[in-house]
């Protein structure tokens, strides 16, 4: 095999989409979810990585854009992989960070061009509102937060 320059070699590697979100709760330990206007199910707040961004920066930017909240990306709670599907040709690597507690929910300013609603839900209600592919993030994030660990959710889990 001939020698490849670094640029050529990297071009041969598989690629993936990358997204990140924040587990945010209120003072009653309810989970904050958002309802995108372009999907039929609810989501943990967050979004996809832009060029030059790191996952923790995605969280800070997306929460500011979607909800008008200024947060820091706390501990990494969950890393999971959504396999390719008919709408997505590559796997999606997703990072869920601890966004802490929303002290004043009235400070939330919904980005109405992207989101229809937000709400705080019990852990069980939150899990039930997410798509089947994303639902495991909620109980995993809860366990990770409680145990102060990071959980990896492989594709086959």
From TrEMBL:
Q: Which residues form the Nudix hydrolase domain?
A: 15-143
Taxonomically, the superkingdom here is Bacteria
**Segments passing through the bilayer:** none
Under CDD domains, the record lists:
NUDIX_Hydrolase
Q: What Gene3D superfamilies does the entry give?
A: Nucleoside Triphosphate Pyrophosphohydrolase
* Matching InterPro entries: Nudix_hydrolase, NUDIX_hydrolase-like_dom_sf, NUDIX_hydrolase_CS, NUDIX_hydrolase_dom
Cofactors per UniProt? Answer: Mg(2+)
Hydrolase keyword on record: yes
Alphabetized, the UniProt keywords read: Hydrolase, Magnesium
SUPFAM superfamilies of this UniProt entry?
Answer: Nudix
Q: Keyword Methyltransferase, does the record have it? A: no
- Similarity-based family: Belongs to the Nudix hydrolase family.
- PANTHER family xrefs: GDP-MANNOSE MANNOSYL HYDROLASE (PTHR43046)
- Protein's recorded name: NUDIX domain-containing protein
Organismal lineage: Bacteria, Bacillati, Actinomycetota, Actinomycetes, Streptosporangiales
């Amino acid at each position: 095999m001939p020698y490849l320059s670094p640029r050529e070699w990297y071009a041969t590697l598989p690629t993936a989409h990358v997204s990140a979100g924040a587990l945010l709760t209120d003072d009653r330990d309810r989970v904050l979810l958002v309802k995108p206007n372009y999907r039929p199910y609810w989501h943990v707040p967050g979004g996809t990585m832009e060029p030059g961004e790191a996952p923790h920066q995605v969280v800070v930017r997306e929460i500011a854009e979607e909800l008008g909240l200024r947060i820091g990306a706390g501990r990494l709670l969950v890393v999971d992989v959504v396999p390719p599907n008919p709408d997505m040709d590559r796997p999606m690597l997703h990072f869920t960070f601890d966004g802490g507690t929303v002290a004043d929910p009235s400070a939330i300013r919904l980005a109405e061009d992207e989101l229809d609603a937000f709400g705080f839900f019990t852990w069980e209600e939150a899990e039930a509102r997410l798509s089947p592919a994303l639902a495991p993030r909620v109980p995993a994030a809860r366990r990770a937060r409680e145990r102060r660990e990071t959980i990896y959710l492989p594709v086959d889990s």
